[in-house]
Structures are given as C-alpha cells and as structure tokens.
Design goal:
By secondary structure, this protein is mainly beta. Helix content is 0%, strand content 42%. The chain is built from no helices and 46 strands. The strands form 11 sheets. Strands 17-20-22-24-25-27-29-31-34-37 form a 10-stranded parallel beta sheet, with no helix packed on it. A 10-stranded parallel beta sheet has the order 26-28-30-32-35-38-40-42-44-46, with no helix packed on it. Strand 11 (124-127) and strand 12 (135-141) form a beta hairpin. It is elongated.
Length: 485
C-alpha cells in the first residue's frame, strides 16, 4: 500500500500513511440455497488479511437472500471468505458465498507523527479506483503530525487508495489509534476517537494539545500516562477496573494524569474518581469540568503550588485532606465533605464566580480557614456546624439547608442569607445581613451574653414555625419586610 504525503512543513523526519480496507455487502456474492429458516444462520467472514468484519443474514420468506455488514473490519489485503453455519431450518441446500477484493471502503488509518515540521501540513487527498473517494483531515500541533481524522470512508474501492500531499508517518483507524511513540492529539476542531487507543513498542503517553475538545470514547489500553496541555479532554467511556478506560489502562502505576493547561471533562458515561492517578508534580493547574455530573475525589490532592479549578454544572466533592494551593469555582458546586467528618479545601484562597457555589457538608464542627471572594455563593448542607470567624468577601447568596452556619466573622457582602427547614443561622457576633430569609422550620439566632446587633436590610420569616431567637443583650435593627417583630 502506497505511502502518503502531507503538503507543507518541511519535516526533518517524514512518515507514511497506509489505508486499512474494510468490506461491504457488495464485496460478496451470495447463493442463498433452498433451506427455509425460522432462525437465521450465523455469518462468518475470515481471511483476506483482515480482522473484525461481521455480518448478519437477510431472510426473505425464510431463505437467505443477502447479508447486512455490521462491522466492516479493517486490514483486508485480498479477497475474504464467507461462510454460513447454524440456524434453524428444514432440509435443502445450504447458502454459500464468495468474497472478492472489490467494493471496499477505507475503514481506517494508522498514524506515526514524523518530526521537525516548520509549519502546519495541509489535508490528505485520497486517489484510487473507487466510486466515491474517502476524505480525511490532518491534525497537527507542536510541530508534528499527531493524528488524521477520517471524515468519510468512501465507497467502491477495488484496491487500497494512495494519497497525495504530505510527508508524515500516519496510521489512523476508525476502530482506534495505535501510539507508536509518545504522541500529541489536538488542534482547532474537535476530535472524536470512538475506538481503542492502544500502543506498540512499549509504554506510550498521550498529550492533549490545542484549544479543541478531544472525545475519548473507547476502552483505551495505553499505559504511558496522559498529559492535559491544552483545551478539553472528555472521558466518554466507562472504566473497566484493571483493564481499560478512556485514559488508558488504570492497572499500571506509571499511567498517571498530569495537568499543564488542559481541562478534564466528565460525561454521562463516566463519573470515575481519577484523583488517585493524578501526577504528584508541583505547580499543576488541575482543571475539572464536571459537565452536569456528580463526581467525588477521595484521594488527597497534595501537589505543592498547584491549583484546583472547578467548572461546569454538577458537583465535585472532596473527601480527603487536601494541601494544594488556591481554588477557583466558575460553575456548579465544589462540595467539601460527604456528610461525614472528612474533606477539606486546599490551603489557599477560594475564588467563586456566579453561578458557582462552594458548599460544606460535614457532620462535625468545621471552621472555614480560607478567604472566599467572588460573585458566587456559599452553602451549608451538612448536619454539623460550620463556623466563619473571618471576613468572607463573596457577594453571592448564602443558603443553609441543614445544620448550623455560625458567623463570628462577617458575610456582609453576601446578597442574602436563606435558612431552610431545620437549619440554623447563628450570628455569634454583631452582623450586617443584606437580606435574611428564614423559611418555615428554619431558625436565625443571635447568640451569646455580650451585646450583639444584627443589622438586616430586608427580613422575611415565613410559615408558622420560622424562628428568630434573640439571646440576652441581642437586638435586630434596620429591618424591613415581613417578620413577627
């Protein structure tokens, strides 16, 4: 099969491109025989140098009249064979078939990156005996060819096509990508790999580069680690314990996950806890998009001088003692604790931007040691007491749905404080609150023996059991709205 060239770039090391051919129903001639089946026979496709091709028999009035290709397979270099077996039917002549090396499609390619490019190469052009030519795009970054995306399989090939315009080593396939060396994948347009990303010649790493999104949707088995260097990497398939996952085989200790500017994005297919595989290197910008999923990180994030950024709808829960530096929340909820006694933020400042929320969910007493600023909000959701003894500068809402939020510092910048049923807001020192909403069954109290003044710009106490408890020497001033005062 002829080598391919990719125009432009003047590489120091060029490569080759090889098309991997798959079959179609028209590759085979079928003699249906005379047996009338009630259960269709099994179709087996073999030989021809290819693998993975599968098909089912088409029955018309119980007689085999053709086949449906359910997987085109790949790698065919000569005519395959086809056989029919089993099924349930009466007496008669069994169906047979003959394969040919015609009416093929381009089922895939393999990629080796080349090196030393001085500019971005252009796209590939297929040429060969076909009714419709295949098409593909070159994905290049970091001065090497990192992949080719097959955008159309073509139709009617009678031999493997050749290519024009290029100089890279490339072998992509629709069924996956083989990493022949440590490889980078990315670019401007989004890339989806539905098949397996495997490796050859030893452990190979995958680096996500470029501003685009890479969707890894297969049970990948590479073992050299994953580095998020740019854009977004979406984990679109489930982990298979000890075997495979979108970020390679998790059973290999060296298969770590590092961050250098990219974001790890979750999906409906995967909410796995990858924190135990995070690289222990320092100064990493760990970026997580929960993407409307709920994810828990049970391993401690202890990377010195590193940061944690939480984006996207959904909740990321931290359930270990974390010692990374600053935290940024731009979407969804970053929850500290899971309702027990474990879980901390990092050691540095917290910036929460609307609609982001930082939430505390402990059953034991917890004191917020971090500064918290930004336009987002704070929630108390655990059954224990969370204490604020410094001035927190966030300006979004404060919502207390369970337990107690005790403020001896200040949350005067918060747009409102809402106290839900069975929850308590405790003003343990003189406080100013822009809006205090005590719902039915909730409690707001001014505690302690010393004089404390709660200044409330708007006060609302609803339901027959919404409570405002004033201890000795306490008073509420400057309130407007509905209250029993």
């Amino acid at each position: 099969m002829a080598p391919a060239t990719v125009a432009g770039g003047a590489p120091a090391t060029a490569g080759t491109v090889t098309a991997l051919m798959g079959v179609t129903a028209s590759t085979f001639s079928i003699n249906g025989g005379t047996i009338v089946y009630t259960v269709a026979p099994t179709v087996t496709i073999s030989g021809g140098g290819g693998t993975g091709a599968t098909a089912t028999a088409i029955l018309t009035a119980g007689v085999v009249t053709g086949i449906n290709i359910t997987n085109a397979g790949s790698g065919f270099t000569s005519a395959p064979t086809i056989a029919f077996s089993g099924g349930t039917g009466g007496a008669g002549t069994a169906p047979t078939g003959t394969g040919s090396f015609t009416n093929l499609i381009v089922a895939g390619i393999t990629v080796a990156p080349g090196s030393g490019y001085t500019s971005v190469p252009t796209s590939l052009t297929f040429s060969g005996p076909a009714t419709t030519q295949a098409t593909a795009n070159v994905n290049a970054n970091s001065l090497l060819i990192n992949s080719i995306t097959l955008t159309s399989a073509g139709l009617g090939y009678t031999s493997a096509p050749t290519f024009a315009n290029g100089t890279a080593v490339i072998t992509p396939t629709l069924s996956g990508v083989i990493l022949a060396s440590d490889s980078s994948i990315g670019g401007v347009g989004d890339i989806t790999i539905n098949g397996i990303v495997s490796q050859s010649g030893g452990a190979r790493s995958l680096t996500k580069v470029g501003a685009n999104t890479l969707f890894l949707n297969g049970p990948n088995t590479y073992t050299g680690g994953t580095l998020l260097n740019g854009g977004t990497l979406n984990v679109g398939s489930a982990e298979i314990a000890g075997v495979s996952g979108p970020l390679g085989n998790p059973a290999v200790p060296a298969n770590s996950i590092g961050f250098a500017g990219g974001t790890l994005q979750y999906s409906a297919a995967n909410q796995f806890d990858y924190s135990g595989r995070f690289s222990n290197l320092t100064a990493q910008p760990i970026s997580i998009d929960t993407n409307s999923q709920n994810v828990t990180f049970a391993s401690a994030i202890t990377n010195a001088a590193s940061t944690l950024a939480k984006s996207g709808a959904g909740t990321l829960t931290l359930t270990n003692t974390n010692t990374y530096d600053a935290t940024t929340i731009t979407g969804g909820t970053l929850q500290v604790g899971d309702g027990t006694t474990v879980g901390t933020l990092g050691l540095g400042a917290v910036t929460v931007t609307s609609p982001g929320i930082v939430a505390f969910n402990h059953s034991d007493p917890v004191t917020i040691a971090n500064t918290i600023t930004g336009t987002g909000g704070l929630s108390q959701v655990g059954g224990g007491t969370t204490t604020v003894n410094t001035t927190l500068g966030y300006t979004g809402p404060t919502v207390i749905t369970a337990g107690r939020l005790a403020v001896s510092g200040s949350i005067a910048g918060s747009s409102s404080v809402t106290v839900a049923n069975t929850a308590t807001f405790e003003a343990a020192a003189t406080q100013t609150v822009k809006s205090l909403i005590v719902q039915n069954g909730g409690t707001a109290e001014i505690s302690g023996a010393a004089l404390k003044v709660l200044t409330v710009n708007a006060l609302s106490i609803t339901g027959p059991t919404g409570n405002l408890n004033l201890h000795t020497n306490a008073m509420v001033v400057n309130y407007t709205g509905t209250s029993p005062l």
